[in-house]
Amino acid sequence: MRLNKYVAHSGICSRRKATEHIKNGLVKLNGTIETNPATEIKDGDVVLFKDKIIKPSTNFVYLILNKPKNTVTTLDDDRGRKTVMDLVKNKTKERIYPVGRLDRNTTGLLLLTNDGDLAHKLSHPSHEVKKIYHVFLDKDLKQTHFDAIKRGIELEDGAVNVDKISYIKGAKNEIGIDIHIGRNRIVRRIFEHFGYVVQKLDRVYYGGLTKKDLPRSFSRHLTKREIIMLKHFGH
Known about the structure:
Layout: H1 3-8, H2 15-23, E1 27-29, E2 32-33, E3 47-49, E4 52-53, E5 62-67, H3 84-88, E6 97-98, E7 106-113, H4 116-123, E8 131-137, H5 143-151, E9 153-155, E10 158-160, E11 164-168, E12 171-179, H6 186-192, E13 198-206, E14 209-210, E15 219-221, H7 224-231
């Protein structure tokens, strides 16, 4: 098993993040800093992350959380803010981590797991995981802006094409938006581009999962059917 995969399967972070940690010198192999993510780990090797021994888990855990506001999507926060890990700490003894991230004030669906392969797959842009957001704006969305977003717009970091956009319940300041793009703050930036302020942003769908019957701040383990669905995503 490669070192980055070994770290990811130890419930530390995704494989992409594990690669960063390794290159930044946070991982030791048999007492020596190892900066090559592709190094093969052999039986008997000892791997340390931040000077603590880690081992891959054989018990994969899959949790879905309905994230509340004022919660950061990190394992810990040096500013002492509440994290998503505080909300799931009693759900499992395994080390798990969030797949992707939601802004501190964005609410809704967040997946947490220690399955590094699944986290890598769902985070990779090529798999285009579908996400649906409920957007609350500070004012009504003009039809011209609605049509422009539907056609596709250009932001400073490239083109943005949404899969679907709709007004919700006839309210012109409540918008439903389906998107595959995973770029940072992309939904907020779409509307900020036209001068709107996103007052509330709620992710209601992620890769086939919904938050039906899951109250805010609560989490649950995925069903076997949901796990199979995610693992076959993109096949």
